[in-house]
Amino acid sequence: MHDRDYYYVKIIKRVLAFTVLICTILSGILIYFSSNFSENMMLQMMEDNFLDNSKIYSGGISGYLQGRYNLLNTYAQYPLVKNMNWERVKKYFEMEVNLTNISNLSEDDMKSIKRFDNLFIVDSQGNKYSTDEENINVRNEEYFKNTMKGKKSISNIFISEKSGDLMATMAVPIWNKGEIVGALGGITNIETLSRMIERYKVKHKDSYSYIVDKNGYTICHPNRNFIGSENITKPSKNINEDFVKYGLYILNNDGGDLEYVFNGVSSNAYFSTISNTDNWKIVTIIPNKYIYGPIIKKTNKLLIIGALGILVIAAISLKGGQFIAIPMLKWNKDLEKKRKKLEEEIEYSNLKTEFFSNISHEFKTPLNIIFSTTQLMKFNLKKENSKFDITKLNNHVDTIKQNCYRLLRLINNILDLTKIDSGFMKLNLENGNIVSTIEDITLSTVEYVKSKSKKIVFDTDVEEKIMAFDSDKIERIILNLISNSIKFTKPNDSIEVNIHDKDEKIIISIKDTGIGIPKEKQKEIFERFTQVDSCLTRKTEGSGIGLSLVKAFVEMHDGKISLKSEYGKGTEFIIELPVKLVSWENGEGEGKKSNGKRNVEMMDIEFSDIYS
């Protein structure tokens, strides 16, 4: 090689080395800023999600309290209450607070029915008349001052020595002829708030939520010793002086987040104001390890992979000669998972939005009908010289009763879904004749179906089939499917309930000649909160819960449910249940006979959203 050629080669090597060095540095800078940008973007998305969750949490608590206020406002509308006639009001209030036992209900269900431990009214001078006989003057109490200003109030949070549950005083103003004449309130069990905030957290041992009042005192907290004693704006053995400024920031703002260190744990606090309260705040604590740890770990991994890639490319470029390879970075699998998870969260958020829209519609419709009916009844009763029309009154009462059944059905379905999700829903299996049970259920609906100008037929190829089943769940399944058939069939259509014995399994078929289900909707018909019709255009009432419960009840029996449907021609639901028996050793035995009265009551509940 000539000296001149050697010189050129040396120059080319230096140019290549310099080019590779510049490209390596630029690539490193680019990867660094890209990873930093990705990290900040993912952190911002997570923080926005946590803030949104905080608002959802506060909305859930506000809705729970609003239910109690609605009941008090209902009582405050009674004429006897408006006239402050305590001697006559007392006996009705005592009936409410002395509700102690209803069969077939758990202790938690009893607490949800018995809303107040005592009820009271307070006149404009502060004289309190209570069902617990504690008649004192409360003019200096906060709830009395608020109600006399026309505000609803919740205060005096304490833990019951008797039950250990969280209790509070709730009160609303009593209006009479445009003036506030007093207050109506009661001591209510709000232990549900403690259970609610136990779920308001992320999956980390140091994550939790708590509620503070307008003065900073703890109302709900996982550590029950803090309730009523700890104040986030006052130093104590549990709250250091550095934390006080964060406490003041929380009280002085409607919502937001802040970062702080507490007991050696670096965390973020996301907080939101709870409506229907006197400036209460819910605060959710999330450790920074949960927020930043996984993201930093993944971005660091990406940086290391990028740096190694650049070094490999530099080595290949130097050895390869004249061409510099620019690597194509592949998508990181972890980033792809995060993208899919984000899409799932968006889809779930949309599902929740649709569900709450449906639930709001389902609650508002019967409540509006009940309210309108009571107004109409009151108007008719107040007419001067009007005759008492018992037929019209019975129609009004029937309307109220049907819409109460609708609310009860919706609440029962939501409770059942909650029990199923939490694993508390159990089967009460008993050996019995499933054929006669289904026949009794079907026959109990004949007159009702006939009143809708439709007919229902029961047929079976076996008269007796002894097997283990939960009669209550089977009743819910059959009535729900018959209810759907009634809603989606026209006058003179028919509904068939058939049973086929296949030795090791029993086949139950509910078939109708109604409008059918479009093919594209058949796969999602059993999904929770799903309806064939749009929630804004549907022709029939429903929350989209019924069929998902039916599927859950069938699967609890180790069975399966499917459907055959042709749009415009009808639908057939097919249930397959395995034939098995339970042993006498476990306390189970031959099934109970069908209770006709209970069938009618269950039918009234399941059919309560049918109007045409």
TrEMBL record:
<keyword id="KW-0812">Transmembrane</keyword>
<keyword id="KW-0547">Nucleotide-binding</keyword>
<dbReference type="InterPro" id="IPR003594">
    <property type="entry name" value="HATPase_dom"/>
</dbReference>
<keyword id="KW-0418">Kinase</keyword>
<dbReference type="InterPro" id="IPR005467">
    <property type="entry name" value="His_kinase_dom"/>
</dbReference>
<feature type="domain" description="Histidine kinase">
    <location>
        <begin position="358"/>
        <end position="581"/>
    </location>
</feature>
<dbReference type="InterPro" id="IPR036890">
    <property type="entry name" value="HATPase_C_sf"/>
</dbReference>
<feature type="transmembrane region" description="Helical">
    <location>
        <begin position="12"/>
        <end position="33"/>
    </location>
</feature>
<dbReference type="GO" id="GO:0000155">
    <property type="term" value="F:phosphorelay sensor kinase activity"/>
</dbReference>
<keyword id="KW-0597">Phosphoprotein</keyword>
<keyword id="KW-0067">ATP-binding</keyword>
<dbReference type="GO" id="GO:0005524">
    <property type="term" value="F:ATP binding"/>
</dbReference>
<dbReference type="Pfam" id="PF02743">
    <property type="entry name" value="dCache_1"/>
</dbReference>
<protein>
    <recommendedName>
        <fullName>histidine kinase</fullName>
        <ecNumber>2.7.13.3</ecNumber>
    </recommendedName>
</protein>
<keyword id="KW-0808">Transferase</keyword>
<dbReference type="Pfam" id="PF02518">
    <property type="entry name" value="HATPase_c"/>
</dbReference>
<dbReference type="InterPro" id="IPR003661">
    <property type="entry name" value="HisK_dim/P_dom"/>
</dbReference>
<keyword id="KW-0902">Two-component regulatory system</keyword>
<feature type="transmembrane region" description="Helical">
    <location>
        <begin position="302"/>
        <end position="329"/>
    </location>
</feature>
<dbReference type="InterPro" id="IPR033479">
    <property type="entry name" value="dCache_1"/>
</dbReference>
<dbReference type="InterPro" id="IPR004358">
    <property type="entry name" value="Sig_transdc_His_kin-like_C"/>
</dbReference>
<dbReference type="InterPro" id="IPR050736">
    <property type="entry name" value="Sensor_HK_Regulatory"/>
</dbReference>
<dbReference type="InterPro" id="IPR036097">
    <property type="entry name" value="HisK_dim/P_sf"/>
</dbReference>
<keyword id="KW-1003">Cell membrane</keyword>
<keyword id="KW-1133">Transmembrane helix</keyword>
<dbReference type="Pfam" id="PF00512">
    <property type="entry name" value="HisKA"/>
</dbReference>
<dbReference type="GO" id="GO:0005886">
    <property type="term" value="C:plasma membrane"/>
</dbReference>
<keyword id="KW-0472">Membrane</keyword>
